[in-house]
Amino acid sequence: MFSQIGIVSSVNSKLVEDTIQEVIQTINTTAAKALIDDRIRVGNLDGEFDVCPLQTLPEICDLIISIGGDGTLLQCAKVIFPNQVALLGINLGRLGFLADLSAKNVNKDLEAIIQGDCAMEKRVVLGCEIVRDEKIINTCDGLNDIIVQKWNSARLITLNTYVDGKFLHSQRGDGLIVATPTGSTAYAMSGGGPILDPRINVLALVPICPHTLTNRPIVVPDSSAIEIRVATERNDQSRVTCDGNSVQEVMQGDKIRIFRHQVSINLAHPAKYDHYATLRAKLNWALDP
Q1: What is the CATH code of the structural domain delimited by 4-124+264-283?
Q2: Which of 32, 58, 188, 242 could pair covalently with 142 via S-S, beta carbons 3.0-4.6 A apart?
Q3: Which tens digit of pLDDT belongs to each residue from 26-65?
Q4: Is 174 within 8 Å of 157 (Cβ atoms)?
Q5: In this structure, what are the phi and psi dihedrals at residue 161, rounded to the nearest 5 degrees?
Q6: Vertex 259 angle, CA 257 and 261, to 5°
Q7: Residue 271 · residue 101 · CB < 8 Å
Q8: Where does CATH 3.40.50.10330 sit in the chain?
């Protein structure tokens, strides 16, 4: 059972406001306390709640509810990590692979979740160190993926990839995606990568538009230490992104070291959550030809 519940949204709209109001009312019917992200406009909200700075919510809450789409949930995950706080998404976006609680079912499903009738799932988080001249110049964490990609140019970039110190390949193309099972339904899927069951401990390395057509996605254990070395001659063509956010421009000789964190993100789902049912619904697999 959850007792301190944070409500987070990065979007202010009538739909978000109505959903937040419904969430507050549902929380108020239980013994739990509602705490609202201070970025949310609260002037028209009724019920009992406190307003708190976003960064403090993971320290005082045992459940955080993200209201929006998968992008909002990824932002929440970044704020939460590495605190062991449960994260629940209410989907107001497009696909909603992660934010899987429908706004239509808030009253029924949310009350049950607050009472502890829910499915909990651990999701892998990637860590990344960007190394230049043997010094770490930047770091980032990613629930979905870490990507080395070209930018600011139509030219191909060259990346040399190593797994556990062993040379995997040299690739010329638009970049390389290192995706968790969570991220396998995001950019990696668009790049032709496999959809990974979140229960298996693997990562997908998915090339982006490789010039060599035999350069295909490969799946490796998530215990692997992955190192991507930038071999592009021009220094203004490559960058590292983490869950869609630009982190660092990289240049020839830079190394991007990617590894699995020992701490995971804890996703909360309705008790009847079914990953395969989510795939069928979101990808229209249930439709007849």
Answers
A1: 3.40.50.10330
A2: 242
A3: 999 999 999 999 998 888 899 999 999 999 999 999 999 9
A4: yes
A5: -115, 135
A6: 140
A7: no
A8: 4-124+264-283
Lookup result for tokens 């990696």: 188
Cα 146 to Cα 69: distance, rounded to the nearest angstrom: 20
Span(s) in the chain for CATH 2.60.200.30: 126-260
All residues at 6 or more sequence positions from 70 whose CB lies less than 8 Å from its CB, including other chains: 89, 91, 93, 95, 96, 97, 98, 99, 186
> Which of 70, 100, 141, 174 does the annotation list as catalytic?
70
Q: How confident is the model at residue 289 (pLDDT cuts 50, 70, 90)?
A: low
Q: Which of 117, 116, 105, 205 is nearest to 164 (CA)?
A: 205
Q: Strands 4-8 and 265-270: what pairing?
A: unpaired
Question: What global pTM score does this model have?
Answer: 0.93
SS3 20: helix
How many CB atoms neighbour CB 48 within 10 A? 10
Peptide bond into 82 cis (omega under 30): yes
Q: What's the alpha-carbon Rg for the chain, to the nearest Å?
A: 20
Q: Which tokens hold the place of 195? A: 């959809």
Active site residue 70: yes
Length, in residues, of the chain: 289
Backbone angles phi, psi at 275, to 5 degrees: -60, -40
Give all strands of the β-sheet with 226-230 in edge-to-edge order: 135-142, 126-132, 255-260, 226-230, 157-163, 166-173
Class of domain 126-260: mainly beta
Q: Which of 212, 216, 173 is nearest to 192 (CA)?
A: 216
SS3 104: helix
pLDDT of 288: 63
Contacts of 165 (CB under 8 A, 6+ apart): 225, 227
> Prior bond to 221 cis, omega within 30?
no
